[in-house]
From TrEMBL:
Domain Bacterial bifunctional deaminase-reductase C-terminal, chain residue ranges per copy: 7-171
Biological processes per GO annotation: riboflavin biosynthetic process
Protein name: Dihydrofolate reductase
Alphabetical list of Pfam families matching this protein: RibD_C (PF01872)
Phylogenetic placement of the source organism: Bacteria, Pseudomonadati, Bacteroidota, Cytophagia, Cytophagales
Species name: Fibrella rubiginis
Length: 181
């Protein structure tokens, strides 16, 4: 029962994944895009067979209008009680801890899961369950917002695998947790 958990996320230079109100408009500002460049997202998404996100990220994605994921999505929430009918076959609610989520997904045959959302990522990091991090730093200081990282209670060591710089100033680095397979 081996399940790989990966994070693929963008942050501001000061470590925020969204503005205080959850807005991510700065990610798609013209000066932060490169025509025809997806910064490795499609190559990454093809390696995963499911996504796990928290309620806040799920609600942000719902606001996009069109559901962007073809893979199964599991939303971690203790407060949501239903999924819109049009997503019933694509989204499932789970009220589980990170460890129990891993067990649940592994027992169902999933092998590589994409973790998204600040609180979700923080919880899985604290539990020592994140195997890989791909961090894209955007050349902008937001000054305040929703941080990617929070209190872990202990050191979590990663090894650097690669870094790539893009013409728009985005710098993307990939790390593997020491001890992860």
């Amino acid at each position: 029962m081996s399940l790989k958990l990966s994070v693929y996320i963008a942050t501001s230079l000061d470590g925020f994944i969204a503005r205080p109100d959850g807005a991510i408009d700065w990610l798609t500002a013209p000066e932060h895009t490169v025509p025809g460049e997806d910064f490795g997202y499609q190559a990454f998404i093809h390696t995963v067979d499911a996504l796990v996100m928290g309620r806040g990220t799920y609600e942000t994605v719902l606001a996009f209008g069109e559901w962007p994921y073809a893979k199964p999505v599991f939303v971690l929430s203790h407060t949501l009680t239903h999924i819109p009918e049009q997503l019933a076959d694509k989204v499932q609610l789970l009220a589980l801890s990170p460890a129990d989520t891993v067990t649940y997904l592994a027992e169902r045959g999933f092998q590589h899961v994409y973790l998204d959302g600040g609180k979700t990522i923080q919880g899985f990091l604290r539990a020592g369950l994140v195997d890989e991090l791909t961090l894209s730093r955007m050349p902008i200081l937001l000054g305040e917002g929703i941080p990617l990282f929070g209190v872990t209670g202990h050191d979590i060591r990663f090894e650097h695998l690669q870094t790539q710089a893009f013409p728009n100033g985005l710098v993307q680095s990939k790390y593997r947790r020491l001890g992860a397979s």
